[in-house]
Amino acid sequence: MPYGETWQCESCGRRWNTSQIPADEYWGLLRGMRRLRLVVIGVALGLALVFGLLGLFVSESLFLLLPAVLAFWFILYMPWWRRRVRRRARSSPKWKLRPE
Questions:
Q1: N or C: which terminus of the chain carries fewer CB neighbours within 10 A?
Q2: What phi and psi, each to the nearest 5 degrees, are found at residue 32?
Q3: Model pTM?
Q4: Model pLDDT for residues 18-46, shown as the tens digit of each residue
């Protein structure tokens, strides 16, 4: 649900307004999560660029290292990144909304 919208519970009929959340905290949280996603995309693009350029200009046999780099990426880096994102989400502020 987008920030600032009102939502009505179908079972109890209460209305909840998300604009009760402080805007600066909400947008700061979204910025932080977006930054974490952009970091992982940047690292992936950087690795792809380095391997592509090395494979083209140095030696095509470097492409044989690609499975090892992908294994590192999926076995070590991504689980570490996911733990970091979850830790950040758990430590984010909690808001008590009041029904209208």
A1: N
A2: -65, -45
A3: 0.73
A4: 889 899 999 999 999 999 999 999 999 99
